[in-house]
Amino acid sequence: MTFDDGAFTRALHAAVEDPPVPADLASRVARAHGRRRRRLAVAGGVGAVLAVVATLAIPVVVRRAEPVTPATPSGPLVAANGAVVVRPGQPLRFCEIRYRVDTGRAAMQPPPCWNVVDATGIDYGPLTQRVGELDGTRWADVWVRGVYAGGTLHVVEQSSAWRFPAEPPHVNPCPSASPAPGSADTLDQTAAEHWQTAHPGDAVGVTSVSLDGPGRRGVVVVGAVHPAVVEAALRPVYGATLCVVESRYTPAEIAAARADAAAFVGAKGYTDGLPHAQLDVTEEFGADGQAHVRVHVAVTDAAAEALAARHPAGLVRIDPWLAPATG
User: Fold this and answer.
1) Strand, helix or coil at 294?
2) Which of 47, 209, 282, 309 has its CA 20 to 30 A from that of 28?
3) Distance from first CA to last CA of the chain, Å, rounded?
4) Crossing angle of helices 302-309 and 251-268, rounded to 10°
5) To 5 degrees, how large is the angle CA 170–CA 175–CA 176?
6) Which residue spans within the chain are E strands per DSSP?
7) Using CA atoms, how far apart are residues 227 and 224, in angstroms rounded to an integer?
């Protein structure tokens, strides 16, 4: 309601004839009356609201804003074993463990991280394996599955226990070979290694393979550039336990791949946007009788794929820590 000072003044003059009320006094009284009416109206309104709330027993609840959980980006799933590391004032980190210390030491000091990525979605509370805390920093082993995007691993599944892929069966790379029962217990590849070292142009690698199945049979595997030469030199030594596999790659191709991979790691090691990154290169000789250059990275990217594509198929193998999830 709007109060009209003029109307109130005229009404006061009409109601009080004798003695007459001076105009200025009537105006001051009207203004004072209006201010009192307004104060009473406000107070009355608040009182009425409080009375209604009290009568209805309506609880007054103050809600804090809920944290907004960022949506998991779309993309292929990756999975990995590692450790979660929580440091005060820093983003949650997921780190690769290449060399596990014993359980007692694991509870006393943070894990020796190899590669490290920022992570979201890991729940530290339920983790139970190799848990530790020091000066406000907490850590624990964890297996995770999630989406790696924009430099962050967005975790959608976790487990305290590490998970490992099933080992492939050991298959004889020389089906024609017929090693004797018990030969796996007496395999000695020393003579083959010495011969390969002395003849690097004829053989690229040596290993021994214990075959699955009854009888504990085994073979000494030699990757040969010139199979006939290897057969003539080593068959008299190993008999039926010798397995000669023709190499798909020449010594020059293997050396070129090794040098290229080493240059890739040297240029990329700490510049791929990770909080910490450590890559390595190893030349290996597999149970299939083939040499290869393994390049360990945090996650496969276009640069790593291009490295592998520059060499004969299968020679350079990219080995990511955050590997494509299976199952």
Assistant:
1) strand
2) 47
3) 74
4) 160
5) 145
6) 77-86, 93-97, 113-120, 132-134, 137-149, 152-159, 203-210, 218-224, 242-246, 280-285, 291-297, 316-320, 323-324
7) 5
Q: Which amino acid is at 128?
A: T
Structure tokens at 255: 């050396």
261 φ, ψ to 5°? -65, -40
DSSP 97-114: ESSPPPHHHHTTS---EE
- Helix, strand or coil for residue 35? helix
Q: List per-residue pLDDT tens for the chain, 327 residues long.
A: 454 555 544 544 444 444 454 555 445 545 554 554 444 444 445 444 444 434 444 443 434 434 445 577 888 899 999 999 999 988 899 999 876 666 666 667 788 888 889 999 999 999 999 888 989 999 999 999 999 998 899 999 999 999 998 888 877 888 878 888 888 888 999 999 999 999 999 999 999 999 887 888 999 999 999 999 999 999 999 999 999 999 999 999 999 999 999 999 887 654 445 555 667 889 999 999 999 999 998 888 899 999 999 999 999 999 999 999 986
Yes or no: say if 296 and 321 are a contact pair by the CB < 8 Å rule: yes
